[in-house]
Amino acid sequence: MEYLELIGTRRSIRYFEPDKPVEQDKIQKILEACLIASCAVNAHWLKAVVVKRDEVAPDDLERMKNPVQALVIALAPVHIYFYADLSVVNEIKGTRLKELVDVGALNPTHGWSHKFVDDVVYAQILKPMTENPGYPVVAAFDCGIAACQGLLMAFELGLGACLTAFMPDVVAKYTKVPSTWVPLYVLNVGYSAESKEAGGQRPRPPFEQQYHLGTYGNPFPRDPKVVEELKRSKMLQTPAPLPTRKQEVRELARRLNLPE
Amino acid sequence: MGALTKPIAQYASVTTWAEGLRQQWGGEPLQEEPGKLAALETFCDFVGEDPDVIVGRCFRVRQADGERVLSVKWRGHYADRIKEFRTQQAAANGPRQAAAVLSFLIHNGILIQV
After folding, report:
1. Per the structure, how many domains does chain B have?
2. Which pTM does this prediction carry?
3. pLDDT of chain A along its 260 residues, tens only?
4. Which of A213, B37, B45, B101 is spaced 20 to 30 Å from A40 by Cα?
5. Residue B81 domain flag
6. Nearest to B25 among A246, A257, A258 (CB)
7. Is ipTM strictly over 0.90?
8. How far is A50 from chain B (nearest CA, A)?
9. Whole domain around residue B31: which residue ranges?
10. How far is CA A253 from CA A110, A200, A249, B95, B100, in A?
């Protein structure tokens, strides 16, 4: 799929074909997409543990359900649990930045050298950052970028996916992650039981309310010509609700024995 | 009539359900699909309670601020009973009947996913 259409077609899919397994190579491709995401200081906070739903004991699966995502994790055959590894910066101590220097991504033209990483960046910036109360926010932001690439990859591969919260204490029985890993979200993955349109592009707040030019309160002007161009490229699609959506949901409810 | 002391459609929570279904799907789903009401009635017999009692128990008033909140205990209780109900009704389309009960609860503001 073309990139613009891909990001326009992504939806939070909440109905999966529960008995259609996801191929291992597709799961790998999702993780590969996460790995190459933009990442501050090349730290790679995002860690993931893939758990196949059918390998979870039924009682544990019940305990993993929270009120708003229970059905999603029950229907999705694959759960990718995302964590932020808060220990990584002090483990790698700038070595991955020096890798970027070595491969010519960070250069003296911009002030980068091994000495700068050792004496300034790690010692005076990164290490103190890990002691700042706001540090988890930095790490979580970065993880979100990587997770989003994995999310988009799922759709590129013809899958559906939905990020939800999860019950970390129960899930830990399976993922067995170190205590320095902070639970973030689970990417529920499977073959969508919904149509590709999934009812249409979901409502969003007004563009001008979200984005500003130069200063807060000065809305970024939304050029209708650009909007039309993005519609032609299928990034902006018919907004929800499509007239067929209620019927689609009703048929899904009946096929999957869900409440209406 | 079992656990019920009047026709099931006359309970306030069932009226709320009917209104919710009407808003969501249009038409008169409880009249068009009488199996939904029948399923709820069977469940009421199963637990020995009427629909308003079931909904009432799923909420409690929080002492700290007087807010009406969902009762975790009772929600868990009914989740377990619905699972039992689904299993016991299996020969008679149990999953669909359980889904009707869940729909009744959802349209009364009680989210239970089992």
Report:
1. 1
2. 0.92
3. 999 999 999 999 999 999 999 999 999 999 999 999 999 999 999 999 999 999 999 999 989 988 788 899 999 999 999 999 999 999 999 999 999 999 999 999 999 999 999 999 999 999 999 999 999 999 999 999 999 999 999 999 999 999 999 999 999 999 999 999 999 999 999 999 999 999 999 999 999 999 999 999 999 999 999 999 999 999 999 999 999 999 999 999 999 999 99
4. A213
5. yes
6. A246
7. no
8. 23
9. 8-107
10. 57, 18, 6, 11, 11
